Batch of 3 targets.
Target 1
Amino acid sequence: MHTTSTPPDPRWVTARHEFANAFGDLARGKRNWQIIAFWSLGLLTVSVVAYVRLAGSARVVPYVVEVDRLGQIAAAGEAEVMRTPEPRLVASQLAGFVRAVRTVLPASPPQVQAEVMRRAYAFVDQGSSAAVMLNTYFADPSHDPRVLGQTTTRQVEVTSTLPVPSSPTWKIRWTETEIPLIAGMLGRTTAWEGYVTVRLRAPTTADAVQDNPLGVFITSINWTQITVNGGLSQ
């Protein structure tokens, strides 16, 4: 006994294909839009985070402004990023520091010697061992240039300023000539040697730019007297 199946009505088959095509396109379109939405959300999140970090960070762009004798702006432009200065320029700054910190002026208004010391401290990294050493040294009246200036003067001549290889340390040698201001006292010439450790940092204030334009800051100091009048010191 044979069983024969009745073929489906072509109208139902056609309707089913049309239904599947219509809703299949909708499902695929919905999936595509979901993917686009997720990508957009991710991109928006990254942009918001970047803007928040950018807004939270300080951005200072230095400019150099040239003015004429009347105070009118003659030229202006963005300042270049500070480059590492040449060793000879650093050596010149360190020599100036030694002269300022060791010179004793004759009896003069206190503000004159104070200005010399201010120039010396412009090269010292505040809070470092160099600042502590100088503060302790000058706290002793026997080393205070304002006290010494009442009886003597001291002239400083730097003889050499050399970098220690593969190190931020410099070796400096100089001579000091003390001339008494009181009759009967003898003058003397002494030789000195010192080591200073340097850190280069761009100046951040107007005073620092004027007093220490290269950003040469001393973090440690060690000096010693090596001779007196050409002989070995005791």
Target 2
Amino acid sequence: MHLLSILLQNISDTEGLRLFGMKLINVEDFVSLLVRFSLNLIVIIVIVVGLYAKNSRRKDFYFSYIAISIGIFLLCFLLANVKMELGFALGLFAVFSIIRYRTDSIPIKEMTYLFVVIIVSVINALANKKISYAELITTNLLIVGGLYIMEKILNLRQELSYRILYEKIENVQTGREEELLADLKLRTGINITRFEIERIDFLRDVAYINIYFDINGKKKLNGNEN
């Protein structure tokens, strides 16, 4: 404790020092950064690992959720005291609101978790001194609790989709939906819940079909899960 007091005293003594017009350290803001960052990271890990991971078999979003959370938190925290024009602020929010990866479409549930990660990070970063830590922690607990209720009590299903190229064009005709669904299930080995015909190419006699299935009810194909 004595060494910690000496260290804090030394840090406080250097608080007035500046380098190129910027303070070397602001003790109050520095401690606030560490405390809020730790709180935000704990909450995000609980959401991603404790809730999302246990109810989803997809691990490709773990890195993205945590990385986006860290980036947004630090961005918002460091720019909280910077005067920004309204247009820039709205543009920044719009960019975060339409995040999607061009390589693969994000399912609705994953996109919802992405918005939750963004919201939690922004709340923890931009909460001002008028808000107590008790209120901030309660807000985070309410978000985690709401997700837990929706995941566990409501037992929401996670639906995935594949886009396939289908060549038996005669089954795409109106009135043959049952034959088409049965053939898709037989070929893929997946318990398909629904499908959508995206496009029909009459020159090649093929159709582009999106199939949807519950990830927890997905069957094994050739002894391996895709």
Target 3
Amino acid sequence: MAGRHLLIVLMAVLTLPIVLLYAVLFAQSVSEEVVGVIPVNLTLSNWEFLRDGNIKVPGTTGQFYPNVYAVALNTLVLAITVALLELTFSSLAGYAISRYKFRGRGALLALALILHSFPGITLLIALFYVLNVMGLYDTLLGVIIIKVALDMPLDIWIMKGFFDGVSWDMEMSALVDGCSRLQAWWKVVMPNVRNGLMTVLIFGFLSGWSEFIYVLTFISSQDYWTFSMLVYALTTGEYSYINPGVTSAVAILYMVPVIAFFLFAQQYLLRIQITGKGIS
């Protein structure tokens, strides 16, 4: 019991600085200034951009930043598309690798893991050249393709582990009963790996929602900005002076969907047990 209480105290001490940072962020968004963690002169003026989505810059008449709702839509499209594509491709590839024996299978899995550990940032120049040749530079589609390609190795490993945990006898029974291989995969195997599917879906959504470096590198037009680029521009004062209150408000708006998504998905994350038989 004493050890448990000690562990709780240790975790509280370690997480306290993070909690304080978020408290300051929220306090800054509803006040003119913050002294320590205490807001001074409470105001909702920092949230005025929610009316029409336009971030007003005091002392100017122009609009330096893209519409917040357009940015939110871009971010949502990026996150959902990345999640669905990763879910589709990894479930098909993971099943094939788990069920079929072919020469070089172990080497392929090892190579996939190596590719995932390889830092994608070292490929920026090559990726820029490829996207430019394909006409996908400055498009969300180009960023989506890159994200899916770089995330796929880990997704395939995850799904292979879940498919390995499904008994072959169960699938064989479905085939004997008259199901085709595709029907057996869809009606028998897939329901038994739903935790794995949710894992890939959750990781894919969070990966797309939080993506920054590839958006910064391969998106030059504000029409395709995501929240990460908007927060970056507000933080650096790229187009005007830095307004801490508005920056904090936009940052909180950026976090809300992720928190909501996590609250929805945490029940699946807590049930995840990846049971793999290894490479054979």
